[in-house]
Amino acid sequence: FKKTWVCDGVHDCSHGEDEGNCEATCEENQFRCGKPSNDSATSRVTINCIGRKHVCDGKKDCPKGEDERNCPKKVPCKHGTVCKQVCVIYPNNTEGCSCYPGYSLSKDGHKWSWQPLFGLSISSCHDIDECMFETDPVCSQTCNNTIGSFTCGCMTGYVLRPDGRSCKALGAAPTLLFANRVDIRQVSLNNAKYTALLKGLHNAIALDYHYQMGLIYWTDVSMDVIKRASLNGSGAVGKS
């Protein structure tokens, strides 16, 4: 079979030889949670990866908490240390450097990593651009990166929620309109309260709403007409 089938996460051989001795890896900016798991039903090899920004952040993101094991502890920096922000010590008593929240440890001035010193001058920290997190966005709409942090914003017609990250639409409470063939109803998304806007219909389907004009449109297949009415249910008219 094709070489591209080897180590692709799917057992193509009857005994799974094509997936044996494969190096299960995650993306460069990710952390692998434990060993890969095999699903006998689908013959797939599953690799659980999380973003490196979640490693040693005090919260268990891996199923078995592997991301919070062997984490360094903050210690007072010694005189003459090469660490620019935070000094840490690892479980094996090796000293290393870390950074404040919003920063990443730099090596050669560009690439961050959690590493002990090993005699190298790994000391500087650089700002993390949280706005570039595509798989785990920090803001629901707009994002502005700042040194060591970030700020979220909203589009016109929205306001920032108290969490400082998500946005809420301005105006009246959101509602859902739906047709039930014999009537058209409105339900509030805040309290799940139903209101019948139009009753006694024949076979109403294909509902639509004109936001600017506040009009409801629907088709009645029994009468072969398209009708409209105001959101309060008044002024219903139809056209064949």
Please provide a written account of the structure.
With 240 residues, the chain is an all-beta fold. The chain has four domains: 3-66, no CATH class; 72-128, Laminin; 140-169, no CATH class; 175-239, no CATH class. Helix content is 0%, strand content 34%. It has no helices and 20 strands. A four-stranded antiparallel beta sheet has the order 17-18-19-20, with no helix packed on it. A hairpin with a 4-residue loop joins strand 14 and strand 15 (184-188). It is elongated and about 85 Å long.
Instruction: Report helical residue fraction.
Output: under 10%
Low-confidence stretches: 108-122
Strand content: 25-35%
Determine the N-to-C terminus distance.
Answer: 61 Å
E-strand count = 20
Number of domains: 4
Strand order of the largest sheet: 17-18-19-20
Q: Given the structure, what is the number of helices?
A: 0
**Series of H and E elements:** EEEEEEEEEEEEEEEEEEEE
Global Rg: 29 Å
User: Averaged pLDDT, please?
Assistant: 79
Largest sheet: 4 strands, antiparallel
Gross morphology is: elongated
The helix-and-strand class reads: mainly beta
Brief synopsis:
It is a single-pass type I membrane protein. It contains no helices and 20 strands.
Record the SSE blueprint.
Layout: E1 30-32, E2 37-39, E3 44-46, E4 49-51, E5 73-75, E6 86-89, E7 95-98, E8 103-105, E9 125-127, E10 142-146, E11 149-153, E12 158-160, E13 167-169, E14 175-179, E15 184-188, E16 194-198, E17 204-210, E18 215-220, E19 225-230, E20 237-239
Antiparallel strand pairs: 1-4, 2-3, 5-6, 6-7, 8-9, 10-11, 12-13, 14-15, 15-16, 17-18, 18-19, 19-20
